[in-house]
Every structure is written in C-alpha cells, then in structure tokens.
Specification:
It is a single chain. The chain is α+β, with helices and mostly antiparallel strands. It contains 12 helices and 19 strands. It has a 6-stranded antiparallel sheet. Strands 3, 4, 9, 10, 16 and 17 form a 6-stranded antiparallel sheet that branches. Strands 13-14-15 form a 3-stranded antiparallel sheet, covered by helices on one side. It has helices at residues 42-63, 73-80, 85-88, 147-169, 174-191, 252-264, 297-300, 327-330, 335-342, 348-358, 362-367, 373-384; strands at 3-10, 96-104, 113-119, 123-132, 137-138, 144-145, 193-194, 197-198, 203-212, 217-223, 227-234, 237-242, 269-272, 280-283, 286-288, 294-295, 310-315, 321-325, 391-399. It has a single domain, classed as Phosphatase 2c, domain 1, CATH 3.60.40. Helices cover 33% and strands 26% of the residues.
C-alpha cells in the first residue's frame, strides 16, 4: 500500500467581501450557469444553502438510521439560526487552519483521486476529486491515457484557476461563484478533444470547501459521492455534521431523471442493481453509480448525469475538524468509527487547539503536527476495513 501524507498550517486570510470588479472585465462577470435563467441573489443563495445543509443532515440520518453520532435536528436548527447574509459579513477574530492530507492507491491499479489545498486572497480553498471510468484507455492515435484521472486533474486545475476569479466577479457571492465555475469546467471538459476524437469517456466526483477566514463561514459544493463533514464536540461527545448532499441513484429526484431518460431512449440506457453494491446506470458498455459528476460524456449527452453542485453553508466554531474524503473512506469506515478516531484528546488537532488558545508560537504549533489524523483514517479504510478503492482524506482543523 502506497500512502501519501501532507500537513501544514495556514495563518489567517482576508475576507472575500467587498471584492472589487476584476480588470479587465472577467468572463465570469454576469455569467449564468446553464441550469438557471437568472442569477440568484445573495439572500436567496443563503436560503438555498441552508436548505441544502438541512437536506444533507436529513439524508444521512435516513440512510444510516442506526448511527447515533449525527447532529440532531434541534442542534442543527440552533446552528442554522446563526447563518445569514448578515453573519457572513461580520469580522471575527482571526483564525488558523491546520491541514492534514493522506491518500492511498489502495487495491486499485492506478490512483484516480486528486486533491488541492490553497490559500487564496480571501480564504482557504480545498477540494477532493475522485475520478472514475477505465483506468487505461487508448486514443485514436494509439496513445494511452487514464480517462478518470484526466477528468479529475483537469477539474481540479481549472477550479483552482477559475473559482477565485468567479468569486471576485460575483462580489463575494460564493454560491454564484461555485455554480458558474462548475458549469464552465464541465463545458470545458466536454469540449476538449485529442487525436480527432473526444478524449474524456471518464468522469469525476468532487467535494470542495471554501472557508472565509474573516466571517468563519464554511461553504461546501458537492457532486457525486465524495463528501465532507464537520466533526464538532457537542455535549461532551464528538458529533458529525454532514456538509454534502451525496448524489447517486438513491436520490429520488435524480433517479426519476434517469428513469425518464430510459423511457426517452429505450435500449440505450438501463439500471442494474448488483447484490451488495450501489445501483448503476448503464450506457453500453459503461455503468455509473453516481448521478452527478464532471465529464461522463456518454451520460451527460442526454441529461442523464449533470454537473450541478449541491451547495451548503455552515458557521465554524473553534475546535471544529472538517473532513473531505472520497468514497473509498465513507463506503467502508462507519461514521461512529471516524468519530472515535477523531475524538481522541490525543489527536494533533486537540493539542494544536489547546496550544493556540495558550498563545503558543507558530513554530511550537508546527511541532505538534507530527501525527496525521488523515493518515489514521486512510490506514483504517485500507488496512482494517479492506477498502478496494482509492482513498483520499483531508482533515482541516479550525482554531480561533
């Protein structure tokens, strides 16, 4: 098993509020994603994001009714009451982000996961992309490539380039910036060709978080089954707060869309439900178990699969841990076990949070980053739970 580990500290960043119009005029200025007719106002955007945040909680509770570590509805309502356009404009004491990254190829032939962690002018931007599709394909010119990895890399690179520009053009409207960036990336992926033929027959899921380190707002955009959670100590125990609306064929709305496309194109598409596996939507000869993703030309062509993200917003508290992960973790390690590993008082994040509150120097804090909770989770997924997928885990600790 090959495992990659990274760790580090981000000092406070500036706020994205009041960003000036880019010069020359940005291509994102006034841009509208293909699934909307008009731009969404900031007030409406917050209403949508809060609604999606509640939906993420309800969906995870319904999918895992035996799990007792998820935030309760009463606890969520109290948290949601603190989230608004007005609270997104507040200036709170500077915070610090510590990050840990671990990734493993697991039992796969190639690594199709991609990640990034950037400090931007206005906050921290992090993402995990999980490529899918053939691990090796041949183009019409005879060259070989990895379709899923190529899509994941392209989506990651373009997001890092375009999101800050879209955020500035949208005057700090994170919801709008997420939507137009996702839409532009998908169009760009589908337009690229190689050797006279369309290159991308693979696809990629994505979960991306943006932290405004002045307001402490955490914005999360998700397509597919990669996901993010906040792990917060509430009432003396570590609690999981889902940030992602996972979109596979268990989503009623997406399932209805797939079934409608089967009726419109009989013989081209169909569903199969393998035993003890996720439902898959087929287009000869490829099957896909997610309903939203980048790429996937065969499925995107008739609108079966879309690249519209579900976006949520939450207000961070000191001591929070944010975990972004590919399904190689979440499909194999139960949520209670994740909470157990992250909840130890001996975790680096707990020690760093304590040191930060004591006013320890940045160098002293760096010395505490010798062990990685992300690595612990990856080793649990691959070595203990026998995950047969690539596994990527990013843990962000928030202190203020």
């Amino acid at each position: 098993m090959s495992t990659k580990v990274e760790k580090g500290v981000f000092p406070p960043a500036a706020s994205c509020l009041g960003a000036e119009e880019s010069s020359p005029k940005s291509c994102f200025e006034g841009a509208i994603p293909s699934w909307r007719k008009v731009l969404v106002s900031e007030e409406e955007a917050f209403q949508r994001m809060i609604k999606n945040a509640k939906k993420a909680m309800v969906e995870h509770q319904a999918k895992h009714p035996e799990t007792r570590v998820y935030v309760t509805r009463e606890q969520f309502d109290r948290m949601a009451a603190a989230v608004s356009v007005e609270s997104s404009r507040q200036t709170l004491p500077p915070g610090m982000i510590q990050y840990y990254l671990s990734a493993s190829i697991g039992r796969r032939i190639t690594m199709q996961d991609v990640h990034f962690c950037d400090k931007t002018e206005w906050g921290i931007l992090v993402g995990v992309f999980d490529g899918h599709g053939p691990e090796l394909a041949t183009a019409t010119d005879g060259s070989s490539y990895n379709p899923g990895l190529d899509v994941a890399k392209k989506a990651s690179d373009k997001f890092r380039e375009w999101f800050p520009e879209a955020l500035q053009a949208g005057r700090g409207n994170v919801f709008q910036a997420f939507e137009v960036t996702f839409d532009k990336i998908q169009k760009d992926i589908l337009s690229e060709k190689i050797a006279g033929a369309h290159r991308y027959s693979g696809g990629s899921t994505a979960v991306i978080c943006f932290i405004d380190n002045t307001s402490h707002m955490l914005y999360t955009a998700t397509i597919g089954d990669s996901e993010a959670n906040i792990y917060r100590r509430i009432g003396g125990r570590l609690t999981s707060i889902p940030l992602s609306c996972v979109r596979d064929w268990t989503s009623k709305k997406d399932l209805a869309r797939g079934e409608a496309k089967i009726q419109e194109h009989p013989g081209r598409y169909w569903f199969e439900q393998p035993e003890d596996a996720k439902k898959r939507f087929y287009c000869i000869p490829v099957g896909l178990n997610v309903s939203r993703a980048f790429g996937d030309r065969e499925f995107y062509e008739h609108g079966c699969v879309i690249a519209k993200p579900k976006i949520t917003v939450n207000l961070l508290q000191t001591g929070d841990m944010i975990v972004l992960a590919s399904d190689g973790l979440k499909d194999f390690v139960p949520e209670e076990e994740i909470c157990q590993k992250l909840g130890s008082k001996k975790t680096p994040h707990a020690r760093v949070s304590h040191a930060f509150r004591r006013g320890s120097s940045e160098e002293d804090i760096r010395q505490l980053l010798s062990k990685s909770p992300a690595r612990d989770l990856v080793e649990c997924a691959v070595g203990v739970r026998h995950s047969d997928d690539n596994v990527t885990v990013m843990v962000l600790g928030f202190c203020c």
